[in-house]
Design a protein that fits this description.
There is one protein chain. The protein is mostly helical and 881 residues long. Among the domains are: 197 residues, 3-Layer(aba) Sandwich (Rossmann fold), CATH 3.40.50; 73 residues; 106 residues, Serine Threonine Protein Phosphatase 5, Tetratricopeptide repeat (Alpha Horseshoe); 56 residues, Winged helix-like DNA-binding domain superfamily/Winged helix DNA-binding domain (Arc Repressor Mutant, subunit A). Helices cover 61% and strands 4% of the residues. The protein is built from 42 helices and seven strands. Strands 2-3-4-1-5 form a five-stranded parallel sheet, with helices on both faces. Strands 6-7 form a two-stranded antiparallel sheet. Strand 6 and strand 7 form a beta hairpin. Helix 2 packs parallel to helix 3 and helix 26 packs parallel to helix 28. The protein starts with 7 loop residues before the first helix and ends in an 8-residue tail after the last helix. 51% of the residues are buried.
Amino acid sequence: MRNLRTHFVTGMVSRGASAGPLLGREPVLRTAGELVSALGESRPGLLSVTGPLAVGRSAVLGRVAETAATAGAATAVARCSPVETGLPYGAALQLLAALCSPARFAELVGLCVQDNSESGSCASPMRLLCDEVLAESRRGPLTLVIDDLQWADSWTLRWLEALLRRLAGAPVLVVTASHGSLARYLGEDAAFDAAWPVELTEVVLEPFTAAETETFLATATGKPVDEVFAAAAASATRRFPGLLARSFDRLRTAGVAPVADAAPRLVEVAREVWGEAACRVARGMPVDAIELLRVFAVCGEDFDHELAVALARPKEFSPAQALEILVTTGLAVLEPPRLAEPRLAGEVLAVMPAGERADLFVRAAALGRRTGVGSGAIADLLAAAPPVGRAWAGTALVEAAALRSRQGRSGPAVTALRRALAEPLGSAERAQVLTRLATLEVAHSPDASDTRLRQVLTAPPDARSWPSVLAAADLLVGRGDNETARQVVSALCARGAGVIPPAALATLAVLGWIAQEEGPAEPEVPVAPLAAPADPADPGDPAQAGALAWRLATRGEDRPRVGELAREALAKPDDDGPLMPRLMASRALLCCFEPAEALAGLDAVLIQARIRDNRAVAAQALLYRALAAGWLGRAEQARRDLYTAGRELPVRCWHPTLVARHVAGEMATYQQQGDVEKAWEAEAAPLPPGAERGAGWAFLLYERGRLRLARGEVEGALTALLECGRILRGRHWLNPMLSRWRTVAAVALLRLGDRAAAQELIAEEKALGEAWGASELLDWMREVSFARLGAGAAIHPPPAQPSARLPQPRGEDDSTGAGLSEPEREVVELAVGGMANRDIAKALSVATRTVELRLTKAYRKLGIRGRAQLVARWAPPGRGE
């Protein structure tokens, strides 16, 4: 008989104490050593090492096998695998291969292959294998090590139970490692009570402590490890020895040093290692446990456990038993029941058959919908499933999109709405989804947004969907895609007669007319002209009023009526009507030189646009607010509004025709600040194709002309200014308050010596100004422009006695503003422009009393006594340009 060395226990523990994955395993190694020592007294032993995935079971078994063999015990090791669970006696034959001669082993293999039934109809192989082991034990102590017993084939498990029942007086130690208790795998009859000839010693391995984790890393590197790296290692691996060792080995193989900067890489590697190991474990689990694992992967933490298990379809185990298997393997935790590692969900679902995966997602979504699970969770489930073909699916996705929009999560909202389009939707609901989707997509995919809107506007007319139709038309016109809007709205107006309510059809026609006014003068696709808005019989029709106000303002007709119509259009800023007519009304008030009311209107449009997520109209409101600020001499405010407009909707997502208007605003602001070089940089930036096919191009030409004139390029300036005039005249936009192109062109003509042509332009501007009712204001602005642009002697002198409403041009002496603060200067500039204190307060969003106090301080600093003297001595900068 082989002799067993007595230093077995000491050697096992001393070697294990310094090895990485065996840190802290002294108690279990000592127990194993005692069981091996007992073999010398012919006392059999049974040691079961359990614990979750990557806790280091294999390392412990390896040390037991190594030290047992060194001590003189015959040792055989079998490692079970998921791919061998169907091979009869696979693990048992691995053990016998190390104990028998090759000839005998071949004979046993042949016999075992014959016993290929689960019932064990052929009892001779099982008995023969037991006899072989017992015969070997008579030659001396014997240690049988079986790793990953949870994957052992059923024949081996029955053989192991039979062997354990026959070990009385035999010097045999059986050591197993598995996820759960040994009794689970051997069956209900394996009670391991006093009647059994062998006593079961079961040890549950725990993860490393924090100190053991640091010791492992220090031992592996030969020096103390960076604290940040050590903390990341402990967190990412959950201090599981096997996971920690394999992750660290991969980093070392890749040449990554254990420093703080490598912590993110360690986390990534640990997840990869754990995912690979988890998938191997999952493949070998019972079907019911795999089913529950898949349910957890699909449901996440959105379903209660009781609700989630209702999706599982048990075949053998109860849900509680299946959960126990997942917990003991380390793939799930109990409080509450869920996956131990969220990223495992992707791994589990990736290896799941596509059809089964889709079916599970659909069943989970349907169950969640019936039981009140949140719409966001249902949307996530449906996003991973094929179309359900049921109305509830589309409704749930739309609800989820609305929730995500309120939370500011536009990306997930877009995903839900796109998925909703794959489900059955009524015509009205589909139009609503497309319109909502367009509002969200415009900030990153404007072309896709426009496509959605065209789908709404080209669909067969439906009386129930007209609110979405109006919203879509408003969005498309607000985006600046006026050529397309004009085409589709014109066609829809023709088709919608008798279907869409008359009031809605009239509003739709107004939006089409706005697109016609702002779009290209010569569209690529000929379309019958849309009728101009008529004077609304119903004063409560804001769309008609706003559009007509803009039409009259651009033509320079009936200034008092323009003000009335614009105020009607802006009277109800919080209803659900289209925003573009209100924007046009605000612009019309600017033409009336009513800046306080115009800015209030633009602010109201901006607020409503933001509420509706209409980024394009919000950006336009900010753009025209910037232009108004520049006109009032507030260059810094204009710069801020232009910047905010670009943040509201990135300029790269603006329609090309609006980009031209934005660039014109930048150029105007820089020139007002005296920064000609930056204005030139803005003008030189490349424009998107099609920028010239809209009204905004005329204003860009105007700023280009002013800039060239300031740089001394007189002929180039005149060409740009006259082209600006040609475009505006062709549109019948004659009001000189829209653009001062005639004045600046006259300056260029004077520099070129053509005084007659200059006088002709000035005469035209004066006649138009008189027709508009703003001749004195325009005369004053012209004189300021002449003085600033260096035109020499004025063609027409300013009024001998300026009215109280119109300030005189400021001379070279700038001492009038010395010592004023910026708030005081703002109030002064508005006051000399003719605004009442109340209007100034509204424009600056301050109290009327605050305006009065600032004016009083300004009077004191300037050494004057009242507004009359202020008007006589002050002219706000930039007003004449």
